[in-house]
Structure formats: structure tokens, C-alpha cells
Write a structure and sequence with these properties.
Residues 320-417 form the UDP-glucose/GDP-mannose dehydrogenase C-terminal domain. By secondary structure, the protein is of the alpha/beta class. It has helices at 10-21, 33-40, 51-60, 97-109, 131-144, 165-170, 186-191, 204-235, 239-248, 270-284, 289-309, 337-347, 366-375, 379-382, 386-391, and strands at 2-6, 25-29, 64-67, 79-82, 119-123, 151-155, 175-179, 199-203, 318-322, 351-355, 393-394, 396-399, 410-411, 414-416.
């Protein structure tokens, strides 16, 4: 393919180099005349292992040519890849001026051109979800008018780490391709041919959000690890030994567990131990701000669940909660988020019924018994047998533990607490 790349910084130049290694011809564009001159001479304006060697070969073989002016060159291409910067503005939002300007230039360059197939315009710059639909697509429509189908827009985030970017290009952790309908794209498949990685086709917004999710999680991991390190230093503990033990657990710690959006955390361990770690860190002066935010974030999520479950309901509406313990096949009610939800339901004036076959109020003991009746004094009256719930109709069923599918229910709406993803 013949591919144009806009923006020859760390992302764009690495992509240009690696794409020529795949045998494609690349036209590069950058506003910096000095950068264009260097690349034309086979030199790299950035320090990135392997890039200059590839650029030298590509320019010598005629696979890489660069300019500062777009003119009509894009009209010759099968694909245009946008890698211009989106720096932070004063309010923290991305500055989208370069994205808008490059989009305008690409649209203008193919205006009134007759193409056998649409130009595939691929965005790799990081920007807010909704940008393609709300900013970029309107630019193309305004310039091309009825000819806007001469382009197909794609969002394809990059996952390159500086200093190992060439390796990461050919060995990415994943390939994410955002299209209008979430369907495959022939040219993107050709671009990624020979690269072994899981491929995810999705709609624009999910693809646009991917880098935010990844980068903020990476930042979270670094901040959390450093908080643990500070606590270890204050307590005379080997942070290295703790880390070795932590990462050895690939069943729960370094794994997909606990990362799927769903219900809040609860039970007898997580809330208690988070609060205890907060106290320890404060006591020794470790200042663990990430850990300090966990309970507040969880409380916010509890309220979000309540709002979602009761959306559109009037006081007096009949609500059925399936599952009261903090997880299925357990009778542990201690700090169960489902107990909190039930209490909110009652306080809001809803007519609440609870079904949890694992609960036997007369068999609750100790702290479990005390917590249950201190939070829900009417627990015994709320709990109903299977026959009762299957013989009655409800305005909404809140499936807190995934058991609703096994029941014969009559309800106007079903809310699955653990299916927010």
C-alpha cells in the first residue's frame, strides 16, 4: 500500500519506519522543515533505537519520502495515518487544534478527486471518546459534502513504549481498531498482516477510550507500588520481598480478576483491611493517597448502582433483590454492598422483597448476625421463598449475584448489577 503519515514525532516516525519494513511506501508530512530535511537525509530527529537504521534503508530504497506541504500527494495514497500531538491545554483537556487542521488538510487534498476506493484515514493520536463522531467526521462532511464517502475513518491507538518502540510495533500487546459499526476493515487487516497479537474490532468510542484506560491503570500501578514502597520503608519491611510475593500470584493479583466493571467490593476482608492499611500508613507517615481513595470510590459506586437500579421508579414501586450476601453461595452479610443497596431502597420508599436461598436468618451468628440486623432490622420480613417471588410481579428485579436466569420471574425490568461491562 501507499500510506501517508501526518506528524513525524515519536509515534509517527516510528510507524513510518516500521511500515516501510513491511514493504509499504510511506509519504511523511511534518510542519518542521528541519525535521523533514533530517529524515530526507536518512537521519532520525528523535532518539529511538533502530529507527535511524530503518529510515536510512527506507529513504535509500525510495520507500520513505517526506515533505512539509501536503499539496495533492495524499490523493495518491490508500491510507492516511494521523499521529500529530494532542498536548494538554490549561484545563487538562487535549488541545485538538492540530487534529482539526490535519483533518481539514486531508479532506481538502482529496476534494473533487475520483477514487476507485475510499481513502482510509486512521487516527492514532490520543483524544477524548466521541472525537471522531463529533469533530473529525463533521470536518470531512463540511469539506467533501456528498463526496464524504470518499473517506473511511478509523481509530487505531498505538501501544508503543519509548526506547523499545520498534520492538513494540511488531510485537504489540494487542491491536485495537475502531470503525463506524465495529466491523473489520480490509486495509487495517493488510496493515497488520504478519503481526501476531489479539485483534479487537470495536466502535469508535470504545477504541478511543482504550489508551486512557491503559495509561491511567499504568499510572495507578506505579503510584500504588510506590505507596506500598513508602509504607515498607517506614515499617522496616523489604519492599522487594513483598513485591516478589505479590507478583507471583497470577491467579488473583496479576490477572483479569477484579478488573471487570460491575458491583462494589464488600465482605469481611476488603473494606476492613483497606481501612486498617489507611490507619497504618497515616500512623507511620507514609501518606498513601491512592489507598485513601478506595473506600470513597467504592461508596460512590454504591450510590451509582442505586441510581441505575431505581431509574424511573416512583416511591412504592415493587423491587425484588436477588442476593443479599456479598457474593453468591455465601451467607456473609458483613459490609455487603447488597445490604447497603437494600437499605437505600427502603429509605427511598420502595416496596422491597429479597430472595437469597443461602440465607437462613435464624442461623446467623456473631458479627454476621449483628451486622445484618443493625443494617436491616426487618431482614426476616424482607426475605421471601422462591414460590413467593415466582408468584408475584415486580417493577424491577435487581440481580445482585447472577441467579435471576435460573428463576421464573415476572418483572417489567431486570437490572444486572455485575453486567455493567
Amino acid at each position: 500500500m501507499k500510506i501517508s503519515i501526518f506528524g513525524l514525532g515519536y509515534v509517527g516516525l516510528t510507524a513510518a519506519a516500521c511500515i516501510t519494513e513491511q514493504g509499504h511506501t510511506v509519504y511523511g508530512f511534518d510542519v518542521s522543515e528541519a525535521k523533514v530535511a533530517q529524515i530526507s537525509a536518512g537521519l532520525s530527529p528523535i532518539k529511538e533505537p533502530g529507527v535511524e537504521e530503518i529510515i536510512g534503508r527506507a529513504t535509500k530504497n525510495g520507500l520513505l519520502r517526506v515533505w512539509s506541504a501536503v499539496e495533492d500527494r495524499v490523493s495518491e495514497c490508500d491510507m492516511a495515518i494521523v499521529c500529530v500531538g494532542t498536548p494538554s491545554g490549561p484545563d487538562g483537556a487535549h488541545n485538538m487544534s492540530d487534529i482539526a487542521e490535519v483533518s481539514r488538510q486531508i479532506a481538502a487534498s482529496i476534494h473533487a478527486k475520483i477514487r476507485e476506493a475510499p481513502l482510509t484515514v486512521v487516527y492514532r493520536s490520543t483524544f477524548r471518546p466521541g472525537t471522531i463522531e463529533e469533530l473529525i467526521a463533521p470536518i470531512f462532511r463540511s469539506i467533501l459534502g456528498e463526496d464524504h464517502l470518499a473517506v473511511e475513518l478509523v481509530y487505531n491507538p498505538e501501544f508503543l513504549r519509548e526506547a523499545v518502540a520498534v520492538h513494540d510495533y511488531f510485537h504489540p500487546p494487542k491491536i485495537v481498531v475502531g470503525t463506524f459499526d465495529g466491523g473489520p476493515n480490509v486495509r487495517m487487516d493488510e496493515l497488520h498482516k504478519g503481526i501476531e497479537a489479539p485483534v479487537f474490532y470495536t466502535r469508535y468510542r470504545e477504541a478511543e477510550f482504550t489508551k486512557f484506560v491503559d495509561n491511567s491503570f499504568h499510572a495507578l500501578k506505579v503510584a500504588y507500588a510506590n505507596e506500598i514502597g513508602r509504607a515498607c520503608a517506614h515499617l522496616g519491611i523489604s519492599a522487594g520481598a513483598v513485591h516478589e510475593i505479590f507478583v507471583s500470584d497470577t491467579k488473583l493479583n496479576i490477572s483479569p480478576c477484579y478488573t471487570r466493571p460491575g458491583g462494589p467490593f464488600g465482605g469481611s476482608c476488603l473494606p476492613k483491611d483497606v481501612r486498617a492499611l489507611q490507619y497504618i500508613s497515616s500512623d507511620v507517615g507514609a501518606q498513601m493517597h491512592v489507598v485513601d481513595s478506595l473506600i470513597r470510590s467504592n461508596d460512590a459506586h454504591k450510590h451509582f448502582i442505586f441510581q441505575q437500579a431505581t431509574k424511573g421508579l416512583a416511591p412504592g414501586s415493587k423491587v425484588l433483590m436477588i442476593g443479599l450476601a456479598f457474593k453468591a453461595d455465601s451467607d456473609d452479610l458483613r459490609e455487603s454492598p447488597n445490604v447497603d443497596l437494600a437499605r437505600k431502597m427502603l429509605q427511598a420508599g420502595f416496596s422491597l422483597t429479597v430472595y437469597d436461598p443461602s440465607l437462613r436468618p435464624g442461623q446467623l451468628v456473631g458479627q454476621n448476625l449483628g451486622y445484618a440486623y443493625s443494617q436491616l432490622p426487618s431482614l426476616s420480613e424482607l426475605l421471601k421463598p422462591r414460590e413467593f417471588i415466582e408468584d408475584n410481579e415486580f417493577d424491577v428485579v435487581v440481580d445482585a449475584n447472577g441467579a435471576a436466569a435460573s428463576l421464573n420471574l415476572k418483572a417489567k425490568r431486570l437490572f444486572k448489577m455485575h453486567a455493567l461491562a
